[in-house]
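Practice problem: predict the structure.
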Amino acid sequence: MTSLSEREHSSTANRAIYSQTVPCEPSTAEAGRQLVQSVLGLWQLDSLADSAALIVTELIANAARHTSCQEIRLTVGWPSAARVRIGVLDREPSRLPVCGRPEDDAESGRGLVLIDAVADRWSYDLCGSGRCPWGKEVWAELAAKGEQ
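Answer:
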């Protein structure tokens, strides 16, 4: 694993976006948790680390389970002073996320329910132009106000 300073970094309006391409498999969740914890630590937003770790873990699990992608791209951004965004980008735009209501005895199907419970908001964006998107990013945002 590379150090945080070696990961792709871009800045928009003085707000950074860190990203990392990883295999699309459940074991990638550890790398996702490390990425969000490292970035939030740099931004002095450590109080968001537990919620962000849960979000990235569930987003990765959903991509691994519901797509046939070989790789995904993890992103951690700070698009505004009030919000931090955690996202997972895959190349299967036809497999859109749906927040279901699993039965009480179901062994799976609660990932987006958990994200919905801890995030301030979540959704997805299609990537590409018009009628032929090449992928999607499923994302969730956490409030960052009062953290600095």
